[in-house]
Amino acid sequence: MSEQTGTEKVEVQDNITTTTTVTDSITTTTSTTTTTIEETKTKETEIEHTGINPELTLINNPIIMNKLAGYQFFEKILKSPKKIVAPMVDHTYLAFRMLCRKYGSDMVYTPMMHSKNFATQKVYRKDNFSTCPEDRPLVVQFCGNEPEWVVKAAKYVENDCDAIDLNLGCPQQIARRGNYGSFLLDKPHIILPIVRALHQNIKVPIFCKIRLLPNLDDTIKLAKDLQDAGCQLLTVHGRTKEQKGQFAGVANWDAIARIKKELTIPVIANGSVLEYEDIDRCLNQTGADGVMSADGILANPAMFSGLNVDTIQVARDYLELCHKYPTQLGIARSHLFKMLKSKLDLQADLRDQLHQCATYPELSEIVEQLDHRIKTNAPQVKVLSNKEKRELKAKQEQEQKDQNTTTTTDNTNNNNKRDNNNEDETDQSDKKKVKTNNDKNNNEYVILTKDGASEPVPMQN
Ligand SMILES: Cc1cc2nc3c(=O)[nH]c(=O)nc-3n(C[C@H](O)[C@H](O)[C@H](O)COP(=O)(O)O)c2cc1C
């Protein structure tokens, strides 16, 4: 039996009712069948929530038929990427992606974008997504909890990327409030229909990025369910959603290894890949097809190249790319803080000046000053905490008092002074001298030098 109702086509065959709805070129198919009460209840919840039936058989779908499956896609289209740059909100925009590609990254993700905002707001799309022909292979990541919005968002970019990734790992409060990211990991009735709808409607393959659930067997079940729903590559971040911030700890590569063994699609291992040597360690321990790095790549965007490239040079390259691929200044500044962190920690006044930069030339100027100080072996500059300021003040007052006392004693006992002089001088030359300077924010800095090597750090006011 077949019945056409507007854009809806209903077919009933062998106790299975199939309803196909076409809206704005998004096709969702639902079907119901005779089954146990328990199964029906679960299915009803899912259908109620999403309009899509989990038992959907996706035969004869031209979109799916035209996609290469699993490893075929991974090898032929993506060229078996091993070194992958993680999706990073506020960071993996076009200029940074191109920088990573220059330095050995095989595949790069966009930052997570909110599917409903992307689907409905032109400004959001313009602010958050841009690409160029060289920006490939590229994976665009969305978060969301409704198939309709995720599919609509993905439609906008399906011609400009190699795959769409569903974020199932974001552990932040904003994700809890919005009910997306890692807060969906234990809600398969929400996420599986999204993956099915994407697989069914989007030209490019669908990937997922998950965190670990508290129980590994549950994580394995989820991973298999995602695979069955049409997910063609799974990234596993080897931490639970509770392991974040100061509680992040080391990623669990053994758990990733267990998950990898159970799946037939490519698996990417994520977490604790901080330097070049970690790549092979992680691949060997997990058996994964590739590794994904976030923090390591932010600190050293050339990490995947295995070359010892000075981060000053990387920063210069990045600023050049920001001219070619316009980037919000705040984003560029944030990258500079991260890639130059270890150097800026030793030049606190420059670090504070970087905070104040309001133009690209000012950013470049800080990079050049930093380079100059390193090359000239300039003394370290440290910002004083309030406690250190008090201690410094007390020390200076004490020194002043001592000096006054010495002067008085000098006047009355010249012979004694001469006897002790050598010893005092030896002591002084080994001590670190402390000088202070202020910037326009009234931050007080100390310049830590050895006697004779001191050179006041010029402040830019
Ligand atoms: C600044 C920053 C932004 C991030 N944004 C995202 C994001 O948009 N989507 C996502 O799936 N994960 C995001 N993450 C998590 C990383 O992709 C990655 O899973 C996590 O940092 C663990 O990898 P790591 O140990 O190499 O840092 C972000 C991480 C950082 C540090």
UniProtKB/TrEMBL annotation:
Residues 85-383 form the DUS-like FMN-binding domain. It comes from Tieghemostelium lacteum (Slime mold). Its cofactor is FMN. It catalyses: 5,6-dihydrouridine(16) in tRNA + NAD(+) = uridine(16) in tRNA + NADH + H(+); 5,6-dihydrouridine(17) in tRNA + NAD(+) = uridine(17) in tRNA + NADH + H(+); 5,6-dihydrouridine(17) in tRNA + NADP(+) = uridine(17) in tRNA + NADPH + H(+); 5,6-dihydrouridine(16) in tRNA + NADP(+) = uridine(16) in tRNA + NADPH + H(+). It comes from the Eukaryota. Residues 381-461 are annotated as: Disordered. InterPro entries: Aldolase_TIM, DUS-like_FMN-bd, tRNA_hU_synthase_CS. The keyword Oxidoreductase applies. Its EC number is 1.3.1.88. Residues 385-402, 428-442 have a biased composition (Basic and acidic residues). Residues 403-415 have a biased composition (Low complexity). This is tRNA-dihydrouridine(16/17) synthase [NAD(P)(+)]. Keywords: Flavoprotein, FMN, NAD, NADP, Oxidoreductase, tRNA processing. Gene3D superfamilies: Aldolase class I. Pfam families: Dus (PF01207). Belongs to the Dus family. Dus1 subfamily. GO terms for molecular function: flavin adenine dinucleotide binding; tRNA dihydrouridine synthase activity.
